[in-house]
Amino acid sequence: MASLPNDDTATGAAENPELARLFAGYTISATAWLVFATFVALVLAYKFGAPDFGSGAWLTFGRLRPIHTNATFYGWASIALVGTAYYVAARSCRTRLYSIRLGWVGLWLFNLAALLGTIALDLGYNSGDLEYREWPWPIRVIFAAALVVTAVNLLATVARRSTDDIYLSNWYIMGGVLWTVIIATVGILPWYQYGLGQVAVSGFYMHNAVGLWFTPLALGIFYYALPKLLSRPIYSYALGILAFWTNLLFYPIIGSHHFLFSPLPWWLQTTAIVFSVAMLVPVWGGSANFLLTMRGRFGEVAHSYPLGFILIGVVGYLVGSTQGTLEAFRSLQQVWHLTSFTVGHSHLTMYGFVTFAIWGGIYALLPAATGKQAGRLGMAAHFWLAVVGSFIYVIAMSIGGTIQGLDWVQGKPFIQSVIDIGPFYVWRGVGGILMFLSHLVFAWNVWRMTLGHGAGSTVQPAPLAAEAA
Ligand code: HEM
Q1: Which of 100, 134, 309, 456 has the most CB atoms around its CB within 10 Å?
Q2: What is the structure's pLDDT at 230?
Q3: Under a CB-based contact definition with an 8 Å cutoff, are residues 6 and 461 in contact?
Q4: According to CATH, what is the number of the domain 13-468?
Q5: What is the pLDDT of residues 325-350, one digit of tens each?
Q6: Is the CB of 31 under 6 A from ligand 1?
Q7: Does the Cβ of 433 fall within 6 Å of ligand 1?
Q8: Which of 36, 53, 68, 340 to mutate to test the pocket of ligand 1 (most atoms within 8 A of CB)?
Q9: Which stretches of the chain score pLDDT less than 70?
Q10: How far from 345 is each of 65, 91, 129, 169, 336, CA to CA, in Å?
C-alpha cells in the first residue's frame, strides 16, 4: 500500500515544462476569476448597507449575487482545482499527463463558460432560481464539455501510470471528475426541471457540486501536499480509503436537507438528515488522518506558510462539515433556515476549507513546477489577511444569522430582524475587505511563481522533500 506519493524526478515538472506551463495557466486564470468574483462580492456586501448604490439593472443584487457564486465556483475553485489535479496526477503516477493539448482545451472551455455565463447573468438571461445552475443551459453544456475533457485526461493519465498502486490522491481525483460528469448531466437534462422534481434535483445538484466535486479534489490536494511538506507518509492509507467510500455512500442523498419543511416527501427529508449525520464518518475520519499526519509537527506551521494554509483548510473542513451535520437537524433548521447563518456556513466551507486547500496546494506545488518562489512576506500577508478576514466574516454571519432566526421564531416584525442584523453586515464588509486585499496579494504571489522572476533564490524543482525521505 502506498501511503507516500511516489513520484520521481525523471518525469517531474523539471523535465516537463509543458506540465508546469499548464499548471501555471490554470492558476493564473483561476486567480483572475477569484479577484473578479470577490470584487463583485464587495459590491454585494456594500449593498446591504446602501441598497440604492448601483441602481442600473445590470448592477442589481439579483444579477450580481449569482455572478459572484458562479464565478467563485466555476471560475475560481474549479479551474484552480483542475490545474492542481493535473500536476498531482501526473507526478504521483510517475507518468506524463495523457494530453497537454486536452488540458489547454479544457481551460479554454472552462473560461468560455465562465465568461459567457457572467455576461448572460448580467444581461438578465438566466435559468431562474436553480442554485448554482443560473447560467442558461447552453452555457452549462460548455462547462460540462470542459468537465468531460478533464475527466478523460485525468483518467487516462492514471491508466498509464508506471506505479502498481493508485495513490490516494488519485482515488479522490478520479472520483471527483467521474461523479461530477454525472451530476452536471443530471443538472442539465430537461426532465424533472419543474415543480417538486426540480426541488429534488436542485438539492442533488447544488450540494453534490460541493461534496462530490470541490471536496474530493481538495482532499486529493491534502493527501499529496501534506506528506510532501512534512516528509512523512500519510498517517493511514486505510482510513483515507474508508473516508473515500463513505463519502460516496452518504453524500449523494443529503442535498434535500436544504429543503426541510418543503413539500418534498417527509421520508426524503428524514433520509437526508440521517445521511447528514453519517457524513461524520468520512469527515472525522479524513480530518483525523490529516491531523494525525501532522502530529508532533504543528510547530512547523510557523515556518511554512503552505503548511499553514493546509492546516486552516483541514480545520475548515472539520468544523464546516460538522456544522453542516448540525444544521441538518430540524430543531436547528427551525432557527437557521433562510438566515445569513447559512451564508456563514458557505464561506466557512467554500472559503475556509476549499479555498485554503487550493492556496496550500498552489504554494506547496507550483514553485516545484516552475522553479520560482513566492516571497515569504507575500505569503505572510496573504495568509493573515485571509485568516483574519474570513474569521470576521464567518463569525459575523453566524451570530447575526442566529439573531435574525430567533427574531423570526419569536414572531417579531420582519424589519426588526433587519435592524438587528445591520451591524453584523457592516462587520461582514470589514472581513470582506481584508479577504479581498489578501486576494490581491495572492495574485502578486502567483505572478512571481509563474510569469515573474520569483522571490530570492529559485527553488530546485522536483523532487520535493518527501522523495529525499
Ligand atoms: C472577498 C471575499 C468574499 C466576500 C466579501 C463574499 C461576499 C458574499 C456575499 C455578500 C454574498 C451574498 C450573501 C447573501 O445573499 O446574504 C455571498 C454569497 C456566497 N458566496 Fe461569497 N464572498 C467572498 C468570497 C467567496 C468565495 C471565495 C467563495 C467560494 C469559493 C464564495 C462562495 C459564496 C457562496 C457559495 C455564496 C452563497 C451563500 C448561500 O446562499 O448560502 N464567496 N458572498
Answers
A1: 309
A2: 96
A3: no
A4: 1.20.210.10
A5: 999 999 999 999 999 999 999 999 99
A6: no
A7: no
A8: 68
A9: 1-15, 456-469
A10: 17, 34, 20, 26, 11
